[in-house]
Design brief:
The protein is built from three helices and 17 strands. With 275 residues, it is mainly β. The protein has a single domain, classed as Immunoglobulin-like (Sandwich). The strands form five sheets. Strands 9, 12, 13, 16 and 17 form a five-stranded antiparallel β-sheet that branches. The longest helix has 15 residues. The two termini are 19 Å apart.
Length: 275
């Protein structure tokens, strides 16, 4: 897809949680007292992964719990992401998804596994974590105040399918660079075959949060600052993109996050509908 990107840095104006797992109560709705921190959960999945549908249900439970404080991205990559022969209508694998697997590591916990804010938690031994640990790690990350405020706006032209995404991140404390901003697109509501340990093959399974494309220049995000960013300093970043005709714009979402350019740790994120 054709894209153009601009970004600028101008002045206007980690605390790591403990290793104790926090189990949220999924019965009584979102917890009180959450700040504006937004956590990114990158799930590795595939149409031939029989244990992935229960993982997807866990993600939906957590999204219902944390709502706008959580973003889910489902990355279809690896052996289990191979379409089901003679049955799958779509191939959800992408070059960007494969690249992310290479950067973040092959899911050594099996499928489904997820990466929370691209952070390695004590005892995991890798960035990946198993389904039973997701809730606790998300809770740990949400317990910390966000060191950036981040806003994301989209402009959509249905006639030309031209999309513009504008990101603004403002540091709330001094943060050492390099810093990267990543923009990507996910799509939900895609009906296709999925293997399921409980039901065999499900012909009309609804796939959600499917990674469609990383629309920043680099799959790791583009560098927007190299030195120390001081409290009150603002980072602006924008992308122009043409949405492919086969994607349903009303089901697509733009995701943005700012991360440490060395460790890849995600400081803050945001998301917005295409239309």
């Amino acid at each position: 897809m054709m894209r153009s990107i601009t970004y600028s840095l101008f002045a206007v104006l980690l605390l790591i949680g403990g290793c104790k797992e926090i189990s949220p109560d999924l019965t009584f709705g979102p917890p009180s007292g959450l700040n504006d921190r937004v956590v990114v959960v990158e799930e590795f999945t595939g149409a031939q992964c029989v244990f992935c549908p229960p993982g997807a249900e866990e993600l939906e439970n957590l999204l219902s719990l944390y709502q706008d404080n959580m973003i889910a991205i489902s990355i279809h990559t690896g052996f289990f992401a191979t379409p089901i022969p003679n049955k799958s209508k779509y191939d959800f694998r992408t070059t960007d998804g494969d690249a992310l697997e290479g950067i973040l590591g092959i899911p050594d916990k099996g499928y489904p596994s997820a990466i929370i804010n691209r952070k390695e938690f004590p005892g995991e031994g890798s960035l990946h974590s198993v389904k039973t640990a997701w809730a606790g790690y998300i809770g740990q990350e949400l317990a910390d105040e966000a060191v950036f405020g981040l806003t994301l706006g989209t402009t959509w032209d249905p006639g030309t399918r031209a999309l513009r995404a504008d990101v603004n991140a403002i540091a709330r404390e001094n943060v050492s660079g390099p810093l990267r901003i990543t923009l990507l697109i996910t799509e939900s509501g895609i009906v296709d075959y999925q293997k399921d340990i409980r039901y065999g093959e499900v012909p009309e399974y609804v796939h959600k949060h499917v990674l469609r494309d990383v629309i920043s220049n680099s799959v790791e995000g583009d560098v927007v600052a190299t030195g120390i960013v001081t409290a009150g300093q603002s980072l602006d970043y924008a992308v122009n993109y043409t949405l492919p005709a086969e994607w349903k714009s009303e089901k697509c979402e733009v995701v943005a996050f700012i991360s440490d350019g060395n460790s890849r740790y995600i400081y803050q994120a945001g998301h917005a509908k295409v239309e």
